[in-house]
Amino acid sequence: MTPERPAGAAARPKSSRPPVARDRTPKEAEPKRQSRPERGGLYAALDLGTNSCRMLIARPNGTQFEVVDSFSRAVELGTGLESTGRLGYGPMSRTVQALRICRRKLDEHRVRRMRLVATEACRRARNAPEFIRKIQRETGLTLEIIPAEEEARLAVISCAPLVSPRTDQLLVLDIGGGSTELVWVDLSGVPPQQRRSSMMSVRLDIDQIAAWRPGTGKPRVVDWISVPLGVATLKDQFTDVDDDAARFALMSWHFEEQLHGFSPYQNPAPREGFQIIGTSGTVTTVAASFLGLKRYDRNKVDGLSMTSAQIDRVIREYLTLGPEGRRTDPRIGRERHGLIMSGAAILQALMRVWPTDVMSVADRGLREGLLYALMNRDGVLKVN
Fold it and tell me: What are the DSSP calls for 311-334, one per residue?
């Protein structure tokens, strides 16, 4: 049986690794309020993950924002972390080089309002606080290591524009490099026309979840979970398995085993009024493969709906291609071919265990959530 836990408490599967020291950031921590930018001023959001360093610079534009500049580089910061518990010299060096480029872009655009965060790799690494200080010394950038609940909250916020007014129950899944966040939100008590805007008020700390009361017109977080397995860390679990199909099956099974503490897994919602939104490079790559895109087009991918059968068909194609075929497939891309099967294993497990035949694809994530939250806090974004 699954051990009982307090209602609304965040589920986080225990790791088999010994505990390591972490740079603890207070829950729902936000940087100190900065001066409000001038009208039309620029905002920046930087996400340093286990695999990639990515940044967006944007300006608010009605209910959305307009991207002015962007940056993305696969720094593979989490390489070796699984076995050593520490960030390696090479990955740290690559990351600092990438962050120097980000600093130049921020200076060129004279960005004053920003939030720069690090996630799972830095949460787990014993030497992460030292690395954050190194970044500050060598680039002048101050990064904050955010807790898993803040990462999950921002993923939910980023997906707000894709929430249907008909959605009563929402599952947001965010497959990262080092972890996967799942958030279950009950919107049945929110007026349909306010369901998108209400996502900005979602909080995941235990006190906020327990304080929810019916009749308030606010969304209720049923439960959330951060699984310490993402596309990079799950892939590292089964490097000793040579057979491609067997490795995929083991990864999918292993990920599903981590979900038993998530209460909606035990008590799934009905199909009627249920929406699942997937956000990650894995989800968008599967969508691009389904559409047959040899050159990625965000406008065709973001907001696309895919059925479980369509997702399964793409994953079977990946398995048929094998490692070499995936490496040369233009729909996947050279940066993602080595990680796509671990991501597909996570995605297939999630689609298998929840009562839905359709997933909404979101080409948005932590950076977009950071921008929406900052702009909404400053009152420069019109949320509908």
Answer: HHHHHHHHHHHHHHHHHH-TTT-T
User: Residue-wise over 320-353: b if at least 16 C-beta within 10 A, else e?
Assistant: ebeeeebeebebbbeebbbbbbbbbbbbbbbbee
State the pTM of this model.
0.81
Cβ contact 329:321 at 8 Å: yes
Encoded amino acid at 105, one letter: K
Contacts of 99 (CB under 8 A, 6+ apart): 48, 53, 135, 139, 141
Q: Which residues of 222-246 are buried (b: 16+ CB within 10 A; e: fewer)?
A: bbbbbbbbbbbbbbbbbeeeeebee
Backbone phi, psi, residue 157, to 5°:
-60, -40
Domain annotation for the chain: domains and CATH numbers: 43-148 (3.30.420.40), 150-366 (3.30.420.150)
DSSP string, 87-99: --HHHHHHHHHHH
pLDDT at 36: 45
Residue 7 amino acid letter: A
H or E element, residue 101: helix 89-109
Over residues 249-258, the mean pLDDT reads 94
Residues 325-369: tens digit of each pLDDT: 999 999 998 778 889 999 999 999 988 887 678 999 999 889 999
Q: Please identify which residue in the block is written with the tokens 């593979």.
A: 76
Q: Which amino acid is at 25?
A: T
* Residue spans of beta strands (DSSP E) within the chain: 43-48, 52-61, 64-74, 113-118, 144-145, 169-175, 180-186, 220-227, 274-279, 305-307, 358-362
Cβ atoms of 170 and 187 closer than 8 Å = yes
Q: Distances in Å between the alpha carbon of 325 and those of 74, 317, 346?
A: 21, 10, 21
Extract the tokens encoding 173: 């899944």
